[in-house]
């Protein structure tokens, strides 16, 4: 980092601390359709429908201390996304699991992030998905730095996006598809407002999720989260917080419907996601949340999460 630090949101997003932990600082071996190649050699056709139409699906997964957090759940979600868009993976789940583990060890990663991508494959310029002969599979293992460290201690400012989350009937947000434009356009609203994340409402105005995270609300000691009916990605971190992290501290989490006022009037708000982990929200649309710092319940949950994935062997189920 130079003396002149660019603190624009765009620059903050890729902040790293040292060359080894700076995303993109080290050349990785990437697995693509059957073999590992150096990342500069990993190529995909311009006729791949993943590129032409965002036709495909993906997963993002964390590596903690050499363990791949919730690997099996991520692979199940990947296969379920693929099935929902009638995309047949060219490799079975066991092969993908084996190669994913190999990508981690081969790249010497103890802590990091894995991206698994399945594209529809090479086809013609028409939309027809079934004219693509064979789906492609890409596995990248690298490091990730999503939000600056200071946001975890001071809390993160977010906005409420004007753009609603895609309705379930149009493209079910449960599908982790390669088509993230709905989220990207809401993220651009956030960046334009000088922040890095946006809360998205569904078309009925009910709180759904964020552009790349799920959301939790704490009021009078009760923790709740939007129920999945609102239309969201069924976050694996969200589920882990509900099933394991919160109960370990004696909390149960309610799933229910939330209006904007519920979120803005909360004592604490936090977000969860593979890349973000657990991060407290300090303001929404410039309005302070609670005391404007990361609240005590959020801090306790974040500490418990970190303890379980970093100090204990992270669960791979
Ligand atoms: C739209 C969206 N919602 C929520 C999440 C959080 O899900 P997970 O905890 O499985 O990473 C993500 C990240 O994958 C996401 O992209």
Annotation keywords:
single chain, alpha+beta, D-amino Acid Aminotransferase, Chain A, domain 1, D-amino Acid Aminotransferase, Chain A, domain 2, 9-stranded mixed β-sheet, disordered N terminus, binds pyridoxal-5'-phosphate
Written overview of the protein:
- The protein is α+β, with helices and mostly antiparallel strands and 317 residues long.
- The protein has two domains: 19-142, D-amino Acid Aminotransferase, Chain A, domain 1, CATH 3.30.470.10; 149-311, D-amino Acid Aminotransferase, subunit A, domain 2 (D-amino Acid Aminotransferase, Chain A, domain 2, Alpha-Beta Barrel), CATH 3.20.10.10.
- Helices cover 28% and strands 25% of the residues.
- The chain has helices at residues 9-12, 49-53, 71-84, 93-106, 149-154, 181-192, 236-248, 260-264, 296-311; strands at 29-32, 35-38, 56-64, 67-68, 112-119, 136-142, 156-160, 197-201, 207-210, 214-219, 222-226, 253-256, 268-273, 277-284, 287-288.
- The strands form two sheets. Strands 7, 8, 9, 10, 11, 12, 13, 14 and 15 form a nine-stranded mixed sheet that branches.
- α6 (181-192) links the parallel β7 and β8 (197-201).
- α7 packs across α9.
- It is globular and about 55 Å long.
- Mean pLDDT is 93; it is low at 1-19.
């Amino acid at each position: 980092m130079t003396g002149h630090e660019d603190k624009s949101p765009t620059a903050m997003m890729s902040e790293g601390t040292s060359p080894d932990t700076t995303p993109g600082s080290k050349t990785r071996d990437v697995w693509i359709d059957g073999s590992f190649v150096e990342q500069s050699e990993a190529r995909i056709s311009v006729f791949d429908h993943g590129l032409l139409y965002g036709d495909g699906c993906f997963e993002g997964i964390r590596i903690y201390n050499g363990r791949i957090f919730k690997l099996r759940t991520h692979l199940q979600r990947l296969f379920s996304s693929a099935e929902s868009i009638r995309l047949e993976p060219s490799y079975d789940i066991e092969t993908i699991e084996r190669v994913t583990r190999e990508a981690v060890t081969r790249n010497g990663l103890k802590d990091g992030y894995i991206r698994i991508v399945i594209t529809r494959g090479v086809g013609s310029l028409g939309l027809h998905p079934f004219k693509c002969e064979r789906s492609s599979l890409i596995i990248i293992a690298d490091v990730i730095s999503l939000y600056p460290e200071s946001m975890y201690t001071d809390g993160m400012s977010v906005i409420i996006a004007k753009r609603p989350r895609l309705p379930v009937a149009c493209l079910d947000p449960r599908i982790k598809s390669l088509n993230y434009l709905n989220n990207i356009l809401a993220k651009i609203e956030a960046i334009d407002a000088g922040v890095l994340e946006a809360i998205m409402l569904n078309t009925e105005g009910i709180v759904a999720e964020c552009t790349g995270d799920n959301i939790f609300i704490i009021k009078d000691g009760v923790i709740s989260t939007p129920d999945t009916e609102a239309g969201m990605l069924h976050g694996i971190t969200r589920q882990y917080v509900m099933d394991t992290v919160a109960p370990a501290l004696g909390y149960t989490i309610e799933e229910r419907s939330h209006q904007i006022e519920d979120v803005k009037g909360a004592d604490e708000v936090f977000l969860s996601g593979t890349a973000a982990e657990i991060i407290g929200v300090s303001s929404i649309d410039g309005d302070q949340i609670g005391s404007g710092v990361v609240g005590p319940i959020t801090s306790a949950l974040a500490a418990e999460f970190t303890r379980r994935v970093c100090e204990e062997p992270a669960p791979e189920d």
